[in-house]
């Protein structure tokens, strides 16, 4: 069963995909569904790069979904994303609008386009305790071994960039190995998938400039505020990259310059992993139409509309 189509816009961080999606939505009277694993959290705005101003086009606010839907400190996951995505998708379709999926979390995008079958997996405290002292490299090896046994293509290095995430991935694969449950099938969605292609040097330059701007415009204060509100250090660090390094700076474990340097490197590596995931999607059968990030917005929209029609 293949549903009616939507448009998906993906690309690495700093490629300008949200702005493009918003302008396209304005032209098509469409609504945006976010595919970003961290923008679901309230009050985590600068560090997750929400850039909510991008959703305002010619003075009109474009409707968007799956941003600011849960509290910091909680653990959102792929299974919940699928549920929330389908609610938003059905709602948009029922109002005869076009859904535009937009984001950089490849796993989330692929899971809804291709209709991954997932099941809720409970926490395994015993397993967690047995893994607690291991390094990320050791955990990654355990995960690879499990994936070979289960034949899973789900957990890629993109989403296991911390020990906590790797342990959760091992927990899921272990559960699927020993208790193959009745999986809840999600129908695939026939989608026009647009990739925003950005030259590596330009991407690096934009990442650096954007990081400077975010730090100058309140990212440190945002993270300090979350800590003051009672969100635990380790919970904040779970959210990766910006939250990990800025938290280490705020609690005095890293100097500002060291934080900036290490965070900049980590974001460059993250963008590279995003591209690796998108190339993997193509190998797994998703046709992605790549559009040059440096083209004027009108030209990009013209190309997408031609493909859509």
Structural account:
It is a single chain. This protein has 309 residues and is of the alpha/beta class. It has 12 helices and 8 strands. It has a 6-stranded parallel beta sheet with strand order 5-2-6-1-7-8, with helices on both faces. Strands 3-4 form a two-stranded antiparallel sheet. The relative contact order is 0.17.
Brief account:
It contains 12 helices and 8 strands.
Roughly what fraction of the amino acids lie in strands? 5-15%
Instruction: Give the proportion of residues in helices.
Output: 40-55%
Number of helices: 12
Outline the biggest β-sheet.
6 strands, parallel
Alpha-carbon distance between the two ends: 22 Å
Helix/strand structural class: alpha/beta
Give the low-pLDDT segments.
none
Radius of gyration equals 19 Å
Helices and strands, in order, run as EHEEEEHEHHHHEHHHHHEH
Number of strands: 8
Sum up the overall morphology in one term.
globular
Strand order of the largest sheet: 5-2-6-1-7-8
User: Taking all residues together, what is the mean pLDDT?
Assistant: 89
